[in-house]
Write a structure and sequence with these properties.
Blueprint lengths: L1 H25 L4 H9 L1 E2 L8 H6 L5 E4 L7 H18 L3 E7 H11 L8 H4 L14 H15 L8 E6 L3 H15 L1 H10 L22 H23 L6 H24 L8 H20 L5 E4 L2 H4 L6 H4 L5 H9 L3 E15 L8 E5 L7 H7 L4 E5 L11 E4 L10 H5 E4 L1 H4 L2 E8 L28
Parallel strand pairs: 2-5, 2-6, 3-4, 3-5, 6-11
Antiparallel strand pairs: 1-8, 6-7, 8-11, 9-10
Helix pairs in contact: 4-7, 8-9, 8-11, 10-11, 11-12
Length: about 475
């Protein structure tokens, strides 16, 4: 009986192997899928599998690492693993995230052995508004802990920094400007408080004296906040020359004044006040302005890693965004730095994602529908590889033809996926490298599914579900 069982097991195994082989024989890759498969480099959870990225970044001053969703574990983990190696092995000086300046500054103090926080989770506490899971998640927590530990063994000047480059922190940045000026220059603080009074037109909560009536126009308010920024820059320059000046504190002041200035421009555009321009362009131009300010603060040779969505970090000129007059961080950085900038994108075919069904709603783990036919994601799925790296600078020529590409932001609307989450792009012109993970899992928030309500006007992005 025992011999019969063994024979039966062997027979079944051989039958299944034969069926599998037959199925594989019947699966014929398209010429392009076969070419992509031949050019692809398999990757795994072993950080050493990203050696090709490290080699490509060896001469770069800026490495931009994107993501196709704001809630995929593999994207966050891979980005963190690559960044750790860029800092530890190549001496990169800072990480800039698609997050707000004041909240990230608390993390920056923590990783540089400053401030009162004792854990990474405490340091991330200020990321409280929707969508809080973007930065309050287990991967970012672990990265921040690693960065603090790594920095502990470095002299202060060599400690890598952590900054935010977004502009949704108008209320907090206004408070930070007034707080700093009250100590540095009380007279300027009083003038600034008066000029910032016009911000109450955007939200009454931004008025220190509710009895005052706001009469300034949007254009006058824009001039007011520009005037504050100019005065702050002058003060920072003067105080920065003094012996013992706290350059980090002065830079923090200047950057918060920059946020207020650009956030007002963004709100004018979002609310269509007096032809304020494209809010998308204003936001991405602010991000680049912040990147340049950080590099100037850290030194002319500073090397930085940038974390944001693919839609911000891939070159917009290679997408339908560019045809609609929109630019982005990837385009502006590539135009300024050329080959000294490395643009890395990430994609997935299916799996799960942490996202919200509508703006300001609690986060959920949602099933990602299999990618559409005719998309880059479906082409990569058809290679049969579970995860791989593709150097797009040496990719098959046919890959440059425009195809669909998926973008899932903080909202995921599977019922209208084609309209809500796909756009046309030429991936080899959009990025230098792409990492594909065929089946992915959802990012794990630190706060479960909880979401915090945001200020209705000041932090609400456009209603469009594409990541904004």
């Amino acid at each position: 009986m025992k011999g019969t069982s063994i024979l039966l097991t062997v027979s079944v195994t051989m039958l299944l192997a034969g069926l599998t082989g037959a199925c594989r024989a019947q699966t014929v890759l398209s010429p392009l899928a076969a070419a992509v498969r031949a050019a692809a480099v398999p990757v795994s959870e072993d950080p050493r599998s990203y050696d090709p990225v490290l080699r490509a970044a060896s001469q770069a001053k800026l490495v931009l690492i994107g993501e196709a969703t704001h809630g995929t574990h593999e994207f966050y983990r891979t980005r963190a693993d690559i960044t750790k190696r860029l800092i530890a092995e190549q001496g990169f000086d800072a990480v800039l995230i698609e997050g707000d300046w004041p909240e990230a500054q608390r993390v920056n103090r923590f990783v540089r052995q400053q401030g009162a926080d004792r854990t990474a989770e405490q340091a991330l506490s200020d990321f409280g508004r929707f969508p809080r899971w973007l930065w309050r998640n287990t991967v970012v927590r672990d990265f921040v802990s690693w960065l603090r530990t790594r920095n502990a063994g470095q002299p202060p000047a060599a400690r890598a920094a952590f900054y935010g480059m977004d502009l949704y922190s108008l209320p907090a940045s206004r408070v930070e400007v007034l707080r700093a000026l009250t100590t540095l220059d009380p007279a300027l603080a009083q003038r600034t408080q008066a000029r910032y009074g016009c911000l109450a037109a955007l939200d009454p909560a931004l008025q220190d004296d509710p009895a005052l009536t706001v009469t300034e126009s949007a254009e006058t308010c824009a001039r007011n906040v520009q005037g504050v920024f100019t005065d702050v820059q002058r003060l920072v320059t003067e105080r920065g020359r003094q012996p013992g000046a706290d350059r980090d504190a002065l830079f923090h002041l200047e950057q918060n004044a920059r946020v207020v200035k650009n956030a007002v421009a963004y709100e004018r555009a979002s609310l269509d006040l007096f032809g304020g321009g494209s809010s998308w362009n204003i936001r991405d131009q602010h991000m680049v302005e912040t990147v340049e300010a950080v590099r100037a603060h850290l030194g002319p040779e500073a090397r930085v890693v940038i974390w944001a969505h693919n839609s911000h970090l891939g070159d917009a000129r290679a997408t339908e965004m560019g045809r609609h007059g929109e630019l982005n961080v990837g385009q502006l950085i590539r135009q300024r730095y050329g080959s000294a900038a490395l643009l890395v994108g990430m994609t997935t075919h299916t799996g799960a994602v942490t996202a919200a069904p509508e703006w300001d709603a609690p986060a959920r783990q949602m099933q990602v529908r299999p990618s559409l036919a005719g998309s880059y994601e479906r082409l990569f799925h058809d290679t049969g590889l579970p995860s791989f790296l593709l150097d797009l600078r040496r990719a098959p020529a046919d890959l440059a033809r425009e195809r669909l590409e998926r973008a899932i932001g903080v909202q995921y609307l599977p019922g209208t996926e084609r309209v809500s989450h796909y756009f046309e792009a030429s991936l080899p012109r959009q990025f230098d490298l792409v990492l594909h993970f065929d089946v992915t899992r959802a990012l794990q928030p630190l706060d479960g599914a909880g979401a915090v309500r945001s200020l209705a006007r000041l932090t609400a992005r456009q209603a469009a579900p594409l990541p904004r």
